[in-house]
Amino acid sequence: MVTNSEIAAMLYEFAELTDLEGDVFKRNAYRRAAQSIEELDGDVAEYDREGRLESIPGVGKAIAQKIAEMVETGRSAKLEELRSKFPPGIVELMKVPEIGPRSLVRLHQELGIKDLEDLRQAALQHRIRSLKGFGERSEENILKGIAVVQGQGGRMLLGDALPIAEAIAAHLRAGGCEEVSVAGSLRRRKETIGDIDLLAGSDEPLRAMDRFVSYPRVASVVSRGPTRSTVRLADGTQVDLRVVPRDSYGAALQYFTGSKEHNVVMRRIAIQKGFRLNEYGLHRRDSGEMVAGAQEAEIYRTLGLDPIPPELREGRGEIEAAGEHRLPSLLRLEDIRGDMHVHTVMSDGRATMREIAEAAFRRGYEYIGVTDHSRSLHIAHGLTVDDLLASVEEARQLTDELGFPVLRGAEVDILEDGSLDYPDEALAQLDYVIGSVHSRFKMDRRTMTERVMTALSNRELNILGHPTGRLIGRREGYDIDIEQVMDEAARRGVALEVNGFPDRMDLSDLNCRKAIERGVTLVLDTDAHGVEQLDNMRFAVGTARRGWAERKDVLNALPLDQLRRFFRVAGA
Fold this sequence. Notes:
This protein is α/β, with parallel strands linked by helices. 44% of the residues lie in helices and 13% in strands. It has a 7-stranded parallel beta sheet with strand order 11-12-13-14-15-16-17. The chain has a 5-stranded mixed beta sheet with strand order 2-4-7-6-5, sandwiched between helices. A 3-stranded antiparallel beta sheet has the order 8-9-10. Strand 6 (228-233) and strand 7 form a beta hairpin. 44% of the residues are buried. The mean pLDDT is 90.
């Protein structure tokens, strides 16, 4: 059965293709409908069965008809018709930074560009600069953008891959296969994923395979065997399932989680201790006796190691730390007491302050921080000073009414000269301030570093938002001396954000570890623009865990009184 996220994805594709046709009205309509489907409380198929599709915000009669077709068939004839109007590679070209829909249509019509390679050759041959509105700098930026897209390859964002994998795993469990786990880089919570790998422990492998290939979103079975099968889903995602006997499940989970570097060292240690380690178990080399296999942790313990969390298995010193009993006590999702970076309808969010607060309370948080954009970010409907200050009182009234702390912050633009987008006297009335760069990304390294360092010197700044500005697969981070920024943040008591929005993951895992080593406090946020995006917290936690973060390293793992004390000290 088609899922809400898959229907939303098709609606977003409608938006992109109608944008290429120049129909801005339809583009916006499809985007609004897609956003509503993403945050829908319930299954869209149920709305279809009950004839309630048009009750969904942004869904009128025409879009409702298309959604009904998607629910019933998993496809849309109109979407396929739209796709046929453009070369297959044209949608991929829309991923290239620096190229908007209008420019893309011109490049296609005037230069015959159909795909990334056409675009690359046109830039290298300096044909693009011949078009009005383009120049030498345009070609340079396009080539950089192509490198970003190609570097991403066919990989998926963690935030896209994990829900798919979890849905298939649930399907397998519902069919009687109790031991099922994601494996590979997805289990290690890498920020991008190739194919999705699943592992099942079952003494009835054929039954597990039957259940796997019968998953409703399977479009084709690439291969099928008694212990391994590969399918391709309707959206093109490839999923592999391996089934091992239950007494080998732990060993197989260790083996197929990886990474390659981690496993090479593990096998070497096993040999040194007189064992043989593979996906079937840990065996004595002399007798062949299996001494561990059913439980993953026993593999590590038998080799004299503390069990190593999957997120750390990258060959970055984790095995040595496990042998010396000095692995970090990693942060857990349940350690997070509140989300500090959430947008509302006052700027570019899709939920009210009350809706956000109530959703945070339902999640078991102890507080929530609301941070709309500042006035200079016109595209996100940034708040004027008067609107911002009025909302401070709204947050206090809501806190009293709900008996749940709603902190009023702001995500304030760091302007070109490093100043903040609101006067200090306005910022002083907020509970806390996030400063973020949202413009002029192409400054040279020295200038960008000075810009951010100037912002850090403002006593009202508490958190540096998405510190490198990257968008995975779409935009490289700006050129900045991030280690110098970390040192200054540690000195001034400013927290650095780990932004869990799937295409940000910023700070990255490696930068998280660098920051912790420098004594920087991290804050894990979702950058949510709708209630459903509060789920992004698990991606921020996964990234922080990959960076060896513990609860003590994270600001919003603190109770409210200590959180407020951090903000007061930083501003002193």
